[in-house]
Please model this.
Amino acid sequence: DQQVKQNSPSLSVQEGRISILNCDYTNSMFDYFLWYKKYPAEGPTFLISISSIKDKNEDGRFTVFLNKSAKHLSLHIVPSQPGDSAVYFCAASAKRGGADGLTFGKGTHLIIQP
Amino acid sequence: KAGVTQTPRYLIKTRGQQVTLSCSPISGHRSVSWYQQTPGQGLQFLFEYFSETQRNKGNFPGRFSGRQFSNSRSEMNVSTLELGDSALYLCASSLAPTGAEQYFGPGTRLTVT
Model:
């Protein structure tokens, strides 16, 4: 049973436009969410995170939105650049600093078209 | 600051053998987690160590084990290898136990033939 779902295996966006990656979760105990980016043959790289006490967190071109009532979060990348082409993983944790491992979605392959 | 390092990067083993993978966390990080990545299952949590103690374990058989040393370096062991154990094994370190931002190594690609 997948507790973190990324329903779009791939997404193609034109360079300069906004990329929106979506993630849904089912476990209401999750209270900390993270986005990771992964290039082939490398480990995932931490991008941005958000605590459940917030509904938005920004870091440069990356913004994460959290809608707790819908159990949905999204990552916005504005403007999209060719180097953003990668697989993006959404991850969730039941308690920040707690004893549960991160639960990952299966990833969305973002392709930025020139 | 050096990142998380994993050795070896690539490994080929045959069924029934055992394997040990190594992970050196970022300096100052005391928490090390291990994940298995396969095309079908994505990234799955194996276990986490903090201050040499296993804090949590994912849903994997007992053939998968690990340990952490006093310098925070960690090893993962898989005994009696099966074909299905072929995967990318990723190690991640963080300052605090699970839930904080984790920083991943490049992984060890294990192929079981």
